[in-house]
């Protein structure tokens, strides 16, 4: 294949070496916080201060974080590969962008974005958001973190599905394969005959569905894989 079309899905593992916690590793975020309290619409309705504080802390940490060789290698792939590359991330940090990637598809939202629950307006989130913050568009006190919580629909699924249907290569990097629809992308890619590769520290839940499995740290496995693709 001269210029294969590539779809990449990244998860928290690619940002681990940049110091940002993952969710399900030992001592991960879901060991420190209850998902139903900080990552559901019900939790936000019940205690908005707790949720705003949780994302303010993650936003402040992400603001200080530096991209690692994994992020930088994917930016190089996007810049140099002659075929299509779609970079989909479950991460809400901006380390792909800091590493030089453009057109990053944040399917679970982004810490740097704020959303109005009343009018759906989006704007750059301040470092510190407040409860009942006014929307700059409709002035209602209904600002919230622009994060896709459990029970909500991930963003741009049409675009992702369209890219997967045309994929020649699908790579999942630093994701445990626990959360759908992202964990199902490998089946969609396999269905259209794409080559599939997992690059993870520990095998993901859906590792059996990948034809190529590369264990290790993203800062090592991803640059090596990108070198192979760019030949
Ligand atoms: N290099 C590569 N992979 C790593 C590294 C590393 N340095 N460190 C950890 N990993 C791997 C782990 O082995 C694990 O498979 O990253 C994965 C992290 O899994 P999770 O913590 O479950 O994170 P993720 O898969 O991104 O979670 C998906 O779940 O809670 C929701 O919305 C949240 O986007 C998140 C989604």
Structural class label: alpha/beta
| Strand coverage percent | 15-25%
Order of helices and strands, N to C?
Answer: EHHHHHHEHEEEEHEHEEH
How many beta-strand segments? 9
Terminal Cα span: 12 Å
Helix content: 25-40%
On the 0 to 100 scale, the average pLDDT is: 97
Strand order of the largest sheet: 3-2-1-7-8-9
* Helix count, DSSP H or I runs of 4 or more residues: 10
In one word, what is the shape? globular
Give the names of the bound compounds. Answer: adenosine-5-diphosphoribose
What does the main sheet amount to? Answer: 6 strands, parallel
CA radius of gyration is: 18 Å
Uncertain segments are: none
Topology readout:
Elements: E1 6-10, H1 13-16, H2 29-32, H3 35-38, H4 41-46, H5 48-64, H6 69-80, E2 85-89, H7 95-98, E3 104-106, E4 109-116, E5 122-124, E6 143-147, H8 157-165, E7 169-173, H9 185-191, E8 195-200, E9 212-215, H10 218-230
Parallel strand pairs: 1-2, 1-7, 2-3, 7-8, 8-9
Antiparallel strand pairs: 4-5, 4-6
Helix pairs in contact: 6-10
The chain binds adenosine-5-diphosphoribose (APR).
Q: What report would you give on this structure?
A:
The two termini are about 10 Å apart. The model has no long low-confidence stretch (mean pLDDT about 95). The strands form 2 sheets. A 6-stranded parallel beta sheet has the order 3-2-1-7-8-9, with helices on both faces. It has a 3-stranded antiparallel beta sheet with strand order 5-4-6, covered by helices on one side. The protein has helices at about 15, 30, 35-40, 40-45, 50-65, 70-80, 95-100, 155-165, 185-190, 220-230, and strands spanning about 5-10, 85-90, 105, 110-115, 120-125, 145, 170-175, 195-200, 210-215. It is built from 10 helices and 9 strands. The chain is of the alpha/beta class.
């Amino acid at each position: 294949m001269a210029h294969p079309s590539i779809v990449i899905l990244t998860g928290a593992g690619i940002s681990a070496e940049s110091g940002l916690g993952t969710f399900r590793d030992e001592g991960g975020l879901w060991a420190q916080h209850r998902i139903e309290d900080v990552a559901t619409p019900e939790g936000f309705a019940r205690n908005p201060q707790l949720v705003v504080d949780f994302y303010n802390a993650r936003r402040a940490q992400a603001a200080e974080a530096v991209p690692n060789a994994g992020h930088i290698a994917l930016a190089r792939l996007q810049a140099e590969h002659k075929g299509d590359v779609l970079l989909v991330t479950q991460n809400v940090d901006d380390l792909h962008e800091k590493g030089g990637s453009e057109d990053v598809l944040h399917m679970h939202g982004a810490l740097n974005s704020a959303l109005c629950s009343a009018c759906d307006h989006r704007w750059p989130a301040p470092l510190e958001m407040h409860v009942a913050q006014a929307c700059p568009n409709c002035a209602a006190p209904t600002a919230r973190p622009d994060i896709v919580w459990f029970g909500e629909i991930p963003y741009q699924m049409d675009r992702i599905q369209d890219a997967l249907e045309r994929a020649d290569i699908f790579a999942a990097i630093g994701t445990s394969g626990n959360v759908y629809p992202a964990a199902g992308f490998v089946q969609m890619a396999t269905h259209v005959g794409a080559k599939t590769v997992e690059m993870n520290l520990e095998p993901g839940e859906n590792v059996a569905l990948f034809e190529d499995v590369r264990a290790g740290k993203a800062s090592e496995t991803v640059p090596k894989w990108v070198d192979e693709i760019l030949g």
